[in-house]
Specification:
Length: 469
């Protein structure tokens, strides 16, 4: 009885499929309804028909099985207690369940072997509100009998930089929405080689902190490669200065995104190539005038050495970034001078009202070696603040009311970094990785910032800031 029932369900599915099959392949004028996102078009291939009718048979078989279940349920209710009718109804129900298990098992096996892509009837325009990225891609799907191209548009929910884009005449990509794009650069040659063109740059709303979004940006056959930069907390370096923004000369290396310090930019193929810098902080906190945002300390030599300068926010022209040397004429950092960079941005959110959560620890400066405290000198503690902007401060003023205070050692308690600037205007950086033992930098003698034997060089200013460890 079960075999007979299963044969009946299978016969119904096959009969319905055969009734439609003669008009299927090659009969593209027929409009086929979409089934679970799959449909037949003028450019469908034989495999598309196979998948389409397989899904159709599964759906039809499921309907037939449910009809059998419904019929068996009625037979069971109206059986009047007769054992033969009850047995027949149970057999039908069991057969229907077995049929459903077979149908859906085959469907899941097919999806495991060949995972489904975006449904054919998926549309950016219909789903725009709930998507962060959506792109319409129009390409030649096939040609008609006269050889004319037939175009099809497919919506996709992801996009990334492409180094070799080959769009033919009439083909295009339209970025309908990209919520998290910072910049999009396009190139007329593959591998980002030609002079770039800025297709989009997000504008930040200074009141809400939100960025503008890409909308209906079209990329056509004249574009052979493009680069998308996402809005991510960190630093973007550009190899060309711009009066109205940040520019790109060599798209293969620029812009360069960094979210951690680099002691030698040669490792990134960007040594002495930076001409502008942009610091991005999509996660920001504002309380009065204090903000969490990445800061960058720029050095003209590897290993965080040389005459350094702080970049906060953005600098479209490093050649115009003044070094705080208190000299006349003003000294500028200069383009094509950057060799190492410190990036500081605390991962810890500050409290809204201030308090202990805003302080990560302390850096204590000592006039003695080995961080030794005396009765008269307990050291000069400087807090490591979450909202620290790496403000450069005078050692004498901060530690001894304007009187001499020559730092010879210091202690770091907490996730902090220290940059000292000597009277020779050179800078040097230390953090917890610099410890030989414990948490004390036992001596800075003969460093770049302390060498009395070489012209009386001593530390003049300091910067203390949080570092992610």
């Amino acid at each position: 009885m079960q075999k007979k029932l299963f044969k009946n369900i299978l016969f119904i599915a096959i009969f319905a499929g055969l009734a439609l099959a003669p008009a299927a392949y090659g009969a593209t004028e027929i409009s086929y309804p979409a089934i679970f996102g799959h449909s037949i078009t003028a450019c469908s291939e034989i495999t598309d028909y196979v998948v389409y009718f397989f899904i159709f048979f599964v759906a039809l078989g499921a309907v037939a099985a449910f009809l059998v279940l419904f019929s068996a349920g009625i037979d069971f209710i109206t059986s009047g207690g007769e054992p033969s009718k009850i047995s027949s109804a149970k057999t039908k129900i069991l057969g229907a369940f077995i049929g459903l298990i077979v149908l859906y098992s085959s469907y899941f096996i097919l999806n495991t072997i060949n995972p489904p892509q975006m449904p054919d009837n998926f549309s950016c325009d219909k789903n725009m509100a709930k998507l962060s990225v959506c792109v319409d891609v129009t390409k030649i799907a096939c040609h008609d009998a006269q050889g004319n191209p037939i175009y099809q548009t497919r919506s996709e929910t992801s996009i990334q930089s492409i180094s070799n884009l080959n769009l033919q005449a009439g083909e295009k990509m339209v970025i309908k929405k990209y919520k998290n794009a910072l910049e999009i650069w396009t190139f007329s040659e593959p591998d980002f080689k030609s002079p770039p063109s800025l297709a989009f740059r997000a504008i930040k709303n200074q009141t809400t902190g939100e960025y503008s979004q890409v909308s209906n940006l079209e990329i056509g056959p004249n574009i052979k490669s493009f680069k998308i930069l996402d809005i991510k907390e960190g630093v973007y370096l550009y190899d060309k200065a711009g009066t109205n923004g940040y520019e790109v000369a060599n798209g293969a290396i620029s812009p360069l995104f960094l979210n951690e310090s680099v002691n030698d930019l040669n490792s990134k193929n960007f040594d002495n190539k930076a001409q502008s810098i942009s610091l991005i902080a999509p996660r920001y906190y504002q309380n009065s005038e204090e903000k969490i945002a990445p800061i960058a300390i720029l050095f003209p030599e590897p290993k965080y050495r040389g005459v350094c300068v702080v970049a906060e926010g953005s600098e479209p022209n490093l050649g115009a970034l003044a070094v705080p040397l208190q000299k006349n004429p003003v000294v500028y950092f200069g383009n094509n001078q950057l060799s190492s960079i410190i990036i500081s941005s605390s991962k810890i959110e500050p409290s809204s009202t201030g308090g202990e959560k805003d302080y990560l620890g302390t850096v204590t400066f000592y006039r003695t070696l080995n961080c030794a405290e005396t009765e008269e000198d307990k050291g000069c503690p400087i807090p490591i603040e979450v909202t620290s902007a790496a403000i450069e401060r005078n050692i004498k003023v901060s530690c001894n009311g304007g009187k001499d205070f020559i730092v010879r050692s210091f202690k770091i308690n907490g996730p902090g970094g220290v940059v000292l600037r000597g009277t020779n205007n050179r800078c040097q950086y230390w953090d917890s990785k610099s410890f030989a033992l414990g948490n004390c930098i036992s001596t800075i003698t003969e460093s770049d910032v302390y060498n009395p034997a070489m012209g009386g060089i001593i530390p003049k200013t300091f910067m203390v800031f949080p570092v992610n460890q």
